[in-house]
Amino acid sequence: MSWSDKVKFVSCDLYIDPESLAARMDRPDVFVHLAWPGLPDYRGLFNLTHNLGAEIALFQRLVEWGLPHLVVAGTCLEYGLQFGPLAEDAETRPTTPYGLAKDTVRKTLQLMQKTQPFTLQWMRLFYMYGPGQSERSLLSQLDKALAEKRPSFDMSPGDQLRDYLPIEEVAERFARVIMRPDVSGVINCCSGRPTSVFDLVDRHLRANSGSIRLNRGVYGYPDYEALAFWGIPDKLRTLGF
């Protein structure tokens, strides 16, 4: 029996009709929420004018439903332009509509816990890569350039320091956390190791036996990110990561 034989797929638009989910399934022991329309447009005001209200309305219904355990994907953009290693209990200072919306959702859920107790695990994601990533992401664009046999690839200077995890390791961390509801609150879902953008690209080329001239500095630094920041995954370390 494959894993798909054990899974029941329920298709519904949680933003338009969240009640339909409750009507079509039993109350789950754990609800894992990964959705967020419109990414990777972090600056789009729709993150605040549309997504934020819809997210809070959805979670309010889930909490009223009596959901005991909620796992939600957060974002490192909640930290804003802070530099260096970032702790899970560090102050959040979002500077983008996306980061502000996510941060507001988290704080709203924490207020909801005071009236209707439930376990909240806020998995604050940093930088993921691997199968299924956006075609606009750095490595997807690099793979496209290699497939098209281009002589060169334009990129930023590449000296920015970020915290990267392959998607398989992100999934492993989610799976471990879900089984440990005693580890709750904000959880930095990251490696804890700063890696430069150039090193990420270089490792990817080596792993795939790729060769292409890198035009570093064609693009500037994103203005919504600090030059160097990475997470401190203290709670994940208690789980053996």
UniProtKB/TrEMBL annotation:
Domain NAD-dependent epimerase/dehydratase: 6-188
The organism's place on the tree of life at top rank: Bacteria
Pfam families: Epimerase
InterPro entries noted in UniProt: Epimerase_deHydtase, NAD(P)-bd_dom_sf
Pathway: Bacterial outer membrane biogenesis; LPS O-antigen biosynthesis
PANTHER family (alphabetical): DTDP-D-GLUCOSE 4,6-DEHYDRATASE-RELATED (PTHR43000)
Name of the protein in question: dTDP-6-deoxy-L-talose 4-dehydrogenase (NAD+)
Gene source species: Rhizobium lusitanum
